[in-house]
Design brief:
With 422 residues, the chain is an alpha+beta fold. It contains 11 helices and 20 strands. The protein has 2 domains: 289 residues, Aminopeptidase (3-Layer(aba) Sandwich); 128 residues, 2-Layer Sandwich (Alpha-Beta Plaits), CATH 3.30.70. The two termini are 20 Å apart.
Length: 422
């Protein structure tokens, strides 16, 4: 590293404690779906305190709904927004984008946690709390990377955009809305908590909801009724068989190195209304992964065919047939262009800091990277901290890995962007 880069890396250490406090402030907000206002306020204030420009970018419902990449959800977006900080928009030079999501998944049941999930705590070098890893520490790192460059005495003179978005955990509509309104760039980095590795690809993901009706009767004669919960359970084995077929028939390179890359998960199930009544309804929501190259329409058709065939095998007709809906993710998979100059530069920054080649990570989930890939063919990857128990109990992030992400991003800025002395 040259003297400028060394100064910037040193600056990262000087601002790191503030970054950590900022992360804890975000975690305290517990920003589950449609309750993101608290964390949005925290991030907006932090950007202003760091003297970074910030604007609220509304999620324009009508425009979103008409876009082919829109993931249908059962709520309106008119009162929702993302935060964007644009530095030097329209200036000459390659545009760099950092994108991170603020929303988190539910931490319920909270009594399984060592401490309350929205009360962050530090132990043995790890920061605990829902969102600490996925991915509010990463959001803090990308924002403070810009701050560290300025703190070191340098002005970023080329275009750079910070995006702090919502709805990554369920639809990806937040990032899509930013791109739809022109907040794109030439290369994007996303600090997902998969560690300091080059993210090389991700599978497609589809969400679905299946509802069935039963016949409610008193339990004195259960045979006179039809138990909707038991009926619903009979659809799970055929869906598991679809999962098996996807993993046997479509596990092509590079996913042939992973035993089961296309996973089915039955995520929620509910039904009935009284222990002594045969349940009249039952509903489950699920997620299934699918291979790169398969379209969303294709996987939706496969799921539909499975449900239809199972219904026929059960002799279901009329009101007795299940209702299948698709909502949330219908996100196709893709592979990262590892030959892009931005990927090479990221690898160079990693080598400069650790003296070794970065490892690669092939994902069996999805991220907002897909919006950049499919919307504008923008190159990019994920590179971030190390987290444990993502979406689980006692989620945590390795604090030193956050520091490393901060330094890598600041170094990347110094090599990608045009810098001038303040």
């Amino acid at each position: 590293m040259n003297s400028v880069e060394q100064t910037i890396v040193k600056s990262c250490d000087e601002v790191f404690n503030d970054l950590l406090s900022f992360t804890q402030d975000m975690v305290k907000q517990y920003s589950v779906l449609n309750q993101e206002q608290g964390v949005l306020d925290v991030v907006e204030r932090q950007l202003a305190d760091l003297q970074l420009p910030v604007q609220r970018v509304a999620m324009k419902h009508e425009a979103l709904c008409s876009h082919p990449l829109y993931a249908p959800v059962p709520w309106n977006h008119e009162d929702k927004y993302n935060l964007v900080s644009q530095i030097n928009p329209g200036a000459e030079g390659k545009t760099l984008v950092f994108n991170g999501h603020l929303d988190v998944v539910s931490a319920a049941p909270a009594d399984m946690w060592t401490r309350a999930p929205h009360e962050p705590w530090i132990q043995d070098g790890w920061l605990y709390g829902r969102g600490a890893g996925d991915m509010q520490s990463g959001v803090a790192a990308m924002i403070y990377a810009v701050h560290a460059v300025r703190h070191a005495g340098f002005k970023i003179a080329s275009p750079l955009t910070l995006q702090a978005v919502v709805e990554e955990e369920c639809s990806g509509n937040g990032a899509l809305s930013c791109l739809q309104q022109g907040f794109g760039g030439d290369f994007v980095l996303i600090p997902e908590p998969f560690g300091p590795q080059i993210y090389t690809g991700q599978v497609g993901v589809l969400w679905f909801k299946l509802t069935v009706q039963g016949k409610p009767v008193h339990v004195q004669d259960t045979a006179a009724g039809e138990n909707a919960i038991e009926k619903l359970q009979r659809f799970i084995p055929p869906l598991k068989q679809l999962e098996e077929r996807l993993n046997s028939d479509y596990r092509q390179p590079p996913y042939d190195t992973i035993a089961n890359p296309f996973n089915l998960n039955i995520g929620t199930i509910q039904g009935g209304n009284w222990p002594s009544s045969v349940p009249a309804y039952a509903e489950m929501e699920g997620r299934i992964g699918f291979p790169v190259g398969m379209s969303a329409n294709e996987i939706m058709q496969k799921v539909s065919d499975v449900i239809e065939q199972a219904s026929q095998a059960m002799n279901l007709s009329g009101a007795g047939k299940p209702i299948l809906r698709f909502h949330g993710f219908r996100s196709e998979g893709h592979l990262v262009d590892l030959k892009h100059a931005g990927i090479g530069l990221l690898a160079d920054c990693h080598r400069s800091l650790v003296g070794a080649e970065p490892e690669q990570y092939l994902s069996t989930c999805t991220t907002d990277l897909r919006a950049f890939h499919f919307y504008s063919r923008t190159a990019g990857t994920c590179y971030g901290p190390i987290a444990r128990n993502i979406h689980g109990v006692d989620e945590c992030v390795d604090i030193e890995s956050v520091r490393h992400t901060l330094k890598t991003y600041a170094l990347f800025i110094s090599r990608w962007c045009k810098l001038e002395p303040l």
